[in-house]
Amino acid sequence: MSTPVVETPRNRFIDPKVLVKIQNMELVARTVVEGFVSGLHRSPYLGFSVDFAEYRDYTPGDDLRRIDWNVYSRMDKLVIKLFEGETNTKDLILLDVSGSMNYGSGPVTKFDYARILAACLSYFAYHQRDGVGLVTFDTTVRDYIPSARRAGQLPNILHVIDRATPSKETEFKKPLRHLAEILKRRGVVVVISDFYDEPANIMAGLKQLKAKGNDIIVFHIMDDFELTFPFSENAQFEDLETRKKLHVIPEYLRKHYLNILSDHLKQLSAEMAANRIDYTLINTTKPLDQALFNYLAARSRTV
Amino acid sequence: MNLLNPFFLLGGLALSIPVLIHLVRKEKTEIIPFSSLMFLLRVPKSSIRQQKIKNLLLMALRLLLLALLVGAFARPYFTQTETPVAATSNNRAIVLLLDNSYSMRYGDTFSKLTAEANKRVDALGAGDRMAIIAFNDNAELLTSPTGDKAALKAALSTLEPSYGGTRFYEAFTLADRAFTQMGATEKQLIMVSDFQRSGWNRSSHESVIGTEVKTETVNLSVENPSNVGIDSVSVEPTSFTRTYAGRVIARIHNHRRDQPVTVPVSLALNTKEIERKSATVPANSTALVEFTGFDLPLGYSKGRVRIEAKDPLDVDNDFLFTLDRREKLKILVVDSGKPRQSLYLQQVYSSALELPFEMKRIPVEQLTPEELGNHNVIILNDVPRLSDRARDRLNELRKTGQGQLVLLSGSADVGWWNAFTAMPVKVTQKIIVNKDRGKFSFALTTYDRNHAIFKSFEKSSTMTIGTAQFFSYVETEAKKGASVLAKFENGSPALIESATDDRGLLVMTSGIDGISNDLPLKPAFLPLFHEFVHYLTRYSESRGWYALGEAVPVIGTIESQAAAVINPNGDRTSLGDLSSGIAKFFTPTQPGYHEVRVGRDVKIVAVNPPSVEGNLAPMPPEDLLASVKRLQGEAQQAGLMTDDAKADYARRQTGWWYLLLFALLAGIAEIYLANRSYSRS
After folding, report:
1. So what's the pLDDT on residue A42?
2. Which of A194, A236, A248 lies nearest to residue B35, judging by beta carbons?
């Protein structure tokens, strides 16, 4: 499916402000992914393929259907054709639904952006024949749809994404530990969050998943105002998670705030790099293609 | 400090504008939802506080700037400084006002006063001069201005608490006079007192001191003083009976404001305690204690009411008075022997037992010259004539102070009475008004209102003598030197007094028989005839007591005699010779019993300190100073200010200049701070 927007050279990838107006999450995902893929000149319908690995001697009990009869005719020897294991991966998307995600300086909140991204990734993965699952979390795991590649999986995921509402505070340690315990197979774990927690806690959670052999892709969603702090008037700032209020004189606090934020981002970036986690900081005013590129790059490593 | 343009202070309201803006803006602060305060909360608090402080500093600077401008436009000037004496300055004139009224006897107040005074003397610098004034009711210069500390201390050592009251006016007046004499450039008035409110009398003259005089007060008043004292004792000082019929009523005042007190109250007479009672006095109130019915010896008795109050001010626990028991005045009425002729006179002088009169009536035939000598007053009631011996005896007795009243009426032998040379009148004829003058009656219309006899009728409307009708009288002519005290409406004398060299003879030209006139039926009759006797006997009621400082009269007797006063310490003060009817006054300076001697007569006078001093309630010294009128010194009033004085006068008004300078500095600081703050933002 193509839309005039997608074909506009300036909007190589669709603008989040437009996407957020589309209520149907599947339509959003399809719009994005198909436009994105067409831009890559790769067919989304290639599916997966199995590669030949080696031959081995037939032993009784082997499936007769797997005997390579061409070899038997030439060499009069029964051999079994072995293939490399299944190439489709299990993707699990972790979507932060904490209250801070509900912030947006413009029409697109961080959560809007995050769930479009989550929907796109789910759609993309599903149609790549990958198993896909979804976890929403704040201080604990809210919804969990295990990774699978069965019919109805995508609508399920999109439905959960659609009805998710951000409310509570953020915590990484506890929900990620919980996930690490229940995940049996390694795969690609995509974490979409604004990471309002201590880097140590965040890394503690992610490391547990990493330790299970998962490939982790992190999308750090930040609003433009959070990154630039362009406020000028004195105001009371209200924390969307805790509802605490603070009287802020932006002209005096901006410098300190940006320094602290920069330190936080640097620390996260450095620690993730050290743990071989793909980390991408995304400004919600930017299109989604960067996120999808990152995902594909990560997936190609896994495959 | 004062202001030349105090209305400019209204500009101070502008100070509220920045504060109001601050408050209004604060209320309208917008609430912005933000994802998380996690990073904002990590901003160092000190930085935020620093900014707040910077803002507050800016606001304070702006407020200060406004306040300074307002202050400068109000033009402050300094009238005095409250700085205590510094030992370094030179050529100062200091007047030390020391309160030695009797309230300073309270506890150790007086020793505090002397200590403070000594301290002030010690603090005198070289070139300083000091005058010490002690004041109570009066102000007294203890030392003339001097810089000699030893002399000042010697003067202080003689200072004792007095028994006088407090009058600040006198102190300020004398201080002002002292300053005029001293004429230094820097003048300082130091007042050490307990600042009793009672010493400040609004109705008294306004105290005045110069504007250039710096004032300082040392307040020795006591917080919630505990004092019970006797305000006054009311007595009837003269008694004619052995058992005192009057009442001694002591008014006891509890000056404590917080609790009532119960005190034993005793009455002593001639140092012997007569009676003891107990009185409960509510807080800040008074109670009355009454004594009566005790025996009184003849002559003066020294009375004392005492309360056994355990308070630090003992002086007002005693109250002295005197009681004078006298014999009754003996009156002899001589008439012609007609029945009921002296009935009205008898009624006048013996109608009640407590009257101070003892009357005897005899007909003229029985009168012996010896009998005449036994009485204080002789009344000749329409006697036709007397024997020559009796007449001569009367002339003699008058010289010893006897009073004589002659009532001339129808029975009088005109020839004999005209031959009686001592008579102040010459009888011309007997008049029956209806028959001889063609009128029903005459009224007594003119009388000497200033005469002692008529004094008591002066203000009375019910006891008017003019209502009496006279139907017959004896027409007379007053002799030379005699005084006509009352006249009938036709100008004929009604009451005549003998000349001053033969004082003691009164003639009334109408009889008291109920026929000649209806005077005996009028209310004025009885007091008028009592007054006749009082006057003729030179009767005077003594006062029960005098307050310290009050003038006590000493009146001469018949003969010219030496008078003297002996005070409670036994010191005798001569008042010189006192002739008959002349009064001299003495002012006691200490409380106690004073003996007043005129010839051989001895009179006791009780003197008490002013009870108002017992009320120790203080007033703020500032109020007292505020009530003192500040006038420029004489030199300044005359436009003869010295260069130094002019410089000082100008200097005291330069406050606005400094305020503007500070305002400028504040403005510069504000501009610098504000610029720094905005350039950062």
Report:
1. 40
2. A194
